[in-house]
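Progress report, Aim 2. The chain analyzed during this reporting quarter is listed below.
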Amino acid sequence: MKLGTFMMPLHPPEKDRTLGFEEDIEFIVRADELGFTEAWIGQHHTLAWEPIPSNDVFIANVLPRTKNIRLGSGVSILPQHHPVNVAVRLAYLDHLSRGRINCGFGQGGVPTDWGLFDLPDPGTQGLMTVESIDMILKLWQTDPPFEFKGDFYNIKLEGGNPELGIGELLQPYQKPHPPVGMSIIRGQSRAANMAGERGYIPISTNVVSGSTLAEHWETYCNGAASAGQPEPDREIWRVSRSIFIDETTEAAWERASNGALAGSMAYLRWLINSANMLSVLKGDPEMPDEEVTVEYMLKNLCIIGDKEECLRRLHELWEETGGFGTLLMIAHDWDDKERWLACMETLANEIVPALP
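Predicted structure tokens for the chain:
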């Protein structure tokens, strides 16, 4: 089992933004020191709880502060960016890092972000996302002159002077391109199916039940089979979880239920419900919506307790899902910095080494 992190990030709206950004940087630096293998950085424009609007700029900031951890966009929300901008900015980061970059691609699910960019309906945005991914991969592997015509983008590069380097597009350091991942929420997700078809890294969200996680992998494998791909190795699968470890289970629950962790669950419940996806939180599909409370989410979708309890819960998750390669600790607000740092250290040094 490897250990990484998924950083949305999650900070209460009332927290000073500058302080939150500095905390995010410190989190990644400490994760690198503790041997976390990767970090996926989120991106949104209109969410105070998730306030990083440009994950590539954040990655550029932490690159020189870290040594080994791989840094990924988690995700680049493609309908909100032109494919050429995404392609060259990520390629540039790949060179600056000498190949320490992963690339997560996705559609995004925030209506206020959609409105800000005057985007079409979610179905059309899904088509835009697939076309954008295809364009980016072509840009990374095709020498000019070229023209790529799509339904949403027409990208053309011609009329340059190769001897002078005019008309030359930056391609990635990693060949043929950096590893590509896709975030997955719904059990029968189109993203999971597409990731399986193309061999992309599946990144499962933190706020779904173990049974939905198992469905993620089934959908991913079905996609691989439909495309004639070899049977996927579970080592490629990333599973996210909110985790808080303390000296005692009672102390862990006191902090979790009365601090920013509980606040983030209330926020995520509202956001997911607004997208008509509350069912992904339910361990039982027949469960009434009103029973999906913050307490339910903390007990069933988070890992909270002392070392023994958290290890037991993670073993249960391993068994329920059938196994996965990397556990992604969600980066939560440090409402008690010393306890959260201790949690990271315990998870890295004692818990994950004891997992399969």
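The mean pLDDT is 96. The domain at 2-250+306-354 is CATH 3.20.20.30 (TIM Barrel). These observations will guide the mutagenesis work planned for the next reporting period.
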